[in-house]
């Protein structure tokens, strides 16, 4: 069972999504500029609102990305939605037309690096940031609950709050770390499908010279940026992440969507890293944990137990099965 400080009374704010394609996004940006820019003073950051960072790369996902960005922008707790477009080959007119919804700004990154999703973008004016995938959307209740859970621990540096847990363990036979699904009641990482964190972690991840070699591993493998962020957060906090459960989360990229999901879902799933890799994907991520441990000279990941919720469900993702949206792990 979760400890007493994991029980929160949260006001879950309903909202109606009304996506209109009528805003002109701004293009520009770069990793060096983001780190060189002066960061806002803590007192200038709004503690009561949330900035959503959405990273995009696949042009096939652009229609879905526009809809998801608009849904986030319509949430009353979201101050801004920043889309970081990480595909340098995409023409500007492909991004600008049709336009992104109001409240959404679009910024091209200098490269296709997965590290770009953690850039401390100068548009951020909130103490908390939600880093999210372009094929996952929590409903209003889930967003509100995750943000409230982060606010309860805002004084603790390095807090990560998410819906999708993973774990690690030492493979003694092979002499290396392994990446794994969470054990019952125990996990050590949360995925960036949707992740709430403090803005200071973005700067530490992106700008710390100590992490340069680890960021290079992310670039080389085109993978594991979420694992490295869990390393960074645990190193700052000395604690594991916080798993929450509320509302529901639609996950277009989960491979457990069935064959009846339709061509649109199949297209979303086909470009996802985890769906393409199979067992090799999990092996590669275990190798990343081992390499990050070696590069940092320490193993900061810590286990967390329980979650901030009363009900017990393995994961929050919703998949399309037989024409219905159900829990992805539901047969």
Automatic annotation (TrEMBL):
InterPro entries linked to this entry: GT64 (IPR053318), GT64_dom (IPR015338), Nucleotide-diphossugar_trans (IPR029044)
Keywords: Disulfide bond, Signal, Transferase
Source domain of life: Eukaryota
Signal peptide: 1-22
Gene Ontology terms: cellular component: membrane
UniProt-listed SUPFAM superfamilies: Nucleotide-diphospho-sugar transferases
Record bears the keyword Signal: yes
Residues of the Glycosyl transferase domain: 51-308
GO molecular function: glycosyltransferase activity
Gene3D superfamilies in alphabetical order: Spore Coat Polysaccharide Biosynthesis Protein SpsA, Chain A
PANTHER family: GLYCOSYLTRANSFERASE FAMILY PROTEIN 64 C3 (PTHR48409:SF1)
Entry similarity comment: Belongs to the glycosyltransferase 64 family.
UniProt name for this protein: Glycosyl transferase 64 domain-containing protein
Originating species: Hordeum vulgare subsp. vulgare (Domesticated barley)
Lineage: Eukaryota, Viridiplantae, Streptophyta, Embryophyta, Tracheophyta
Gene name linked to the record: LOC123407338
């Amino acid at each position: 069972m979760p400890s007493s400080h994991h029980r929160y009374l949260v006001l879950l704010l309903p909202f109606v999504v009304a996506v209109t394609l009528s805003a002109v996004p701004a293009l520009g940006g770069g990793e060096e500029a983001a780190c060189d820019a002066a960061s806002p003073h803590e007192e200038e950051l709004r503690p009561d609102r949330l900035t959503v960072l959405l990273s995009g790369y696949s042009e096939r996902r652009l229609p879905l990305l526009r809809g998801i960005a608009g849904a986030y922008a319509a949430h009353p707790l979201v101050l801004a939605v920043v889309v970081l477009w990480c595909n340098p080959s995409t023409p500007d007119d492909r991004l600008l037309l049709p336009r992104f919804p109001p409240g959404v700004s679009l910024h091209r990154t200098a490269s296709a690096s997965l590290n770009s999703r953690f850039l401390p973008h100068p548009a951020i004016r909130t103490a908390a940031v939600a880093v999210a995938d372009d094929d996952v959307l929590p409903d209003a209740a889930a967003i509100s609950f995750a943000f409230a859970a982060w606010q309860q621990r805002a004084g603790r540096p390095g807090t990560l709050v998410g819906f999708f847990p993973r774990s690690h363990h030492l493979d003694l036979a092979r002499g290396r770390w392994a990446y794994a699904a969470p054990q019952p009641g125990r996990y050590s990482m949360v995925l960036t499908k949707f992740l709430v964190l403090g803005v200071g972690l973005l700067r530490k991840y992106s700008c710390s010279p100590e992490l340069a070699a680890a960021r290079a591993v992310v670039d080389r493998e085109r993978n594991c940026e979420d694992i490295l962020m869990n390393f960074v957060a645990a190193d700052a906090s000395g604690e594991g992440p916080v798993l929450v459960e509320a509302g529901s989360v639609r996950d277009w990229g989960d491979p457990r969507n069935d064959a009846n999901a339709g061509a649109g879902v199949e297209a979303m799933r086909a470009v996802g890293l985890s769906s393409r890799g199979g067992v090799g994907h999990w092996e590669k991520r275990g190798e990343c944990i081992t390499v990050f441990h070696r590069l940092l000279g320490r193993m900061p990941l810590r286990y967390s137990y329980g979650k901030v919720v009363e009900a017990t469900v393995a994961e929050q993702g919703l998949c399309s099965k037989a024409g219905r949206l159900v829990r992805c792990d539901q047969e």
